Give the backbone structure.
Amino acid sequence: MAARYESGRTAGAFMVFLLLLLLVGAVGAYVAWDRGFREHPQPDWVRATPEMRFKYGSLGAENDAGIPYWIFYVLPRMFPEKLPGPGGYAALGVPWEQGQELPVGFTKKTIGFPRVANNCAVCHTATYRAKPDEAPIFVVASPGHTTNVEGFFRFLIDCAKDPRFNADNLMSEINLVTKLDVIDKLLYRFFVIPITKKRLIEREAQFAWIYRKDFPDWGRGRDDAMNLTKYFMVKQPMDDTFGPTDMPSIWNLQKYRADQGMFMNFAGDSHDAYSVIIDSALGLLGAPPAHKQEFLDEVAWLHEYLTKLPAPKYPFPIDAAQAEIGKEVFAKNCATCHASARTGTPIPLAEIGTDRNRLDSWNKNAAVIANKVVTDMGIQRKGLVEATLDGYIAAFLDGIWLRAPYLHNGSVPSLRDLLEPAASRPTTFYRGYDVYDPVKVGFVTEGAEAERLGSKLDVGQKANGNQGHEFGTSLSASEKDALVEYLKTL
Amino acid sequence: MDRQSDAQRAARWRGRFLALLALILVPVFLLGIYLFQRFGGDTPVDYASAEEHFKYGSTGGEHEMGFPYWIWRALPQVCAEHLPGPGYESLGMIFEPGKDVPVGTSKRRYQGVDRVFLNCAVCHSSTVRTEKGKPPMVVTGMPANNFDIMKFQKFFFACAADPRFRKEYVMAEIDRLDANLDLLDRIVVYPVAIAIMRERVLTLAGRFDWINRQQEWGPGRVDTFNSAKVIFNFPMDNLPAQEMSAPADFPSIWNQKPRQGMNLHWDGNNSLVEERNKSAAFGTGTTPPTIDIERIKRVEDWLLEAKPPAFPFPVNAEQSAKGGALYKQYCAECHGASGSDFGGEYVGKVTPIAGIATDRRRLDSYTPELAVNQGTLYAGYPWRFTHFRKTFGYANMPLDGLWLRAPYLHNGSVPTLRDLLEPAEMRPKVFYRGNTLYDPARVGFVSNVAEEDGKLYFEFDTRIDGNTNVGHEGKAYGTELSADDKSALVEFLKTF
């Protein structure tokens, strides 16, 4: 009787213990979910206008590619020497609106804890000014000609590799700027910081080619897009190709008519705009989307928005009479490629003669694998062109004034320079300064400030060749001036 | 053995065990309570009157930056040769009778240590003498014309690097002050505090190393926005030369209410009073998690209505009336209808640098890179900074209490109002700053005396970059008026 009573009591105590354990486990699991993984939508202001949504709206990249917000916040303070210059992230030339917490193209979203990632706008927002003593104007869907993408990639990796990147140092820096509660402090110290360090260091191997001494820097406003795809999505081993190109403008996408034999990307690598947006967005995510439908909805919104978004008008005075003359020059010399059925279709390299490195940085096999990777995610799109490509696309010229420097690799500073024979074009200049030069049509590429803020492009370095596209170069100086005047109207 | 004796024995052992446990736990518990009381608190010293709170109240800066009280008291003796003269007075700090710390410092007990650090008043209070030999009067809210903040910083940096900044020397000086520290303070708290303070000050000295390569700011001036770059740890040595050497006068801070929405700061880079205040509070050692919002608010509220004292000398009514008409014609659009009515089309707006043409260093020291970074300050708080903007000129200021705001122009390069009405060519090339004696004729502080009673005044050289006295001249700025008209205008400005 007593024994049974005893064992009954033990069983009761065990049950209580079990319940307590379950309760603790449940609370623990809730806290872990709440602080580690619970998703909160971005605040309402982010989607207040389509432009704001483009600039600050999340694509879902915070899940895998996101940097924990407070780490992102303190890194420039802890490792300023790893940035290209003074100014925190601003030293990377990212478009950054005054009064905003983050630069354009940087998204903040709380998934358990606040995280920062990127969207399209980081590479597709331009700034320009008429003169140095003036605030810049921001234009979305433009080439992000000031952004030093490579510098950003390197900065994060270099920070993570530094022995000072540890929980003690980061926490003491974070404690100077915010008050985390006990749970967040523990979470940061024991999980967020070590995991972030590990994940960033892992990137080094994938990004090996951006550290190669035999390749020049991408510099402001360029990225080696096809190699990024090849090494990250396709996971091919590093080869010796290198083909950085200008960030393209992505307005008015409706002009790319796939049904009329047009292709997208500089070498016609992709079938249509929808495919390009998917592939670029997946590049930002760095992984299959955590929420596929949300991701596809956001891509669909971007496609819709960018399809109809018009190119920005030239904001400075135009000499109408000159432009009228230039229109004739254009019709005779340029229209066959840039305003005809050929526009948007590939021109063989033999004909165009520009630098071939970008073309060599991609291959048919990579396209086949990339398409399979995306299909395996359950995402349908026409995708990359599974063929060996041999030329560059004849570009549409809408908003051409804001698309300097010119040629696919940004090797020619201004439109006026492009109309000179290759031998007479500038051999070195500075990219990424945003003061505009309405005479040559392009950005100012020399002088103390351009040199201080910009990155030097040397046309003698790999993939930087400024040869080719020697069309209209034998026109008279006055015809060239008139032509340039007309191009301002596009 | 029967069961009962077993149980008895067990009970006895249990009793012994519990007694032992109590013997251990009770002292531990009591010690815990003691330590909690000794080191747990966070208590600022408060003052009943708003003006006293402005002078001596806390902004919360002591949490992060506070100097332990007795170290603060001892350092002027420990490192006497790093000061221009005896005590903090020699840096231009103001000691009022019956106070153990100067105007512009606050006290707080935090983590078991009484701490001292700066507050707003250190840069925004000063003294004025109306007559030689008369005692100076303390004026709150006026620019701290005599406080040499560069020398203040350099004193602590040099002292922390001095071999005497260790407990043997510091504790000896503390003893001479009759501190009567208890045993815990003597053997643990203060020795540790000395080591921590040395490390912190030396870290800060590293980040402020650039001030050693600037001209002397002299009393009453600070390079505000190069200092702000230190918050972000910008690599200062890599900044372009045109951004550096940009000292500007401390401003007066009365009448903030009618200033709300104006372009504040010399270059007008912020239009929200509260944000500008929190930005300035970084200079008093605050950080977002440690700022004392409630006590800053008390200062803020007081400043909304704070008024400058009236001109303490006679004003010629007839001349002033004549000057008033000239003022209306020449000055009012940019500087407001009067010292209390700030109405005017261009008041609180930025005049492009090409128009005002004053020294542009201060303007260039504020960069777009800094402006966007300031947008990250107070991230996560409802009052995150959203109003900093790069501008391209200087803001037109209201002129309340103008007589106390000498020397003039943003960089304090023109000693008196009367001098400001001369073309730049005719303004004094070299003059002396830091005198508290007032010159009611020219309206400004006495600026032609190099030394008085052994005190050397600061020689201000307008030929140095950042110090130039150009601009704010030409017909529109009144520099082409007749001498009589200029005198009349100056007479009218005394009423502000």
User: Anything to note?
Assistant: Chain B has 17 helices and 16 strands.
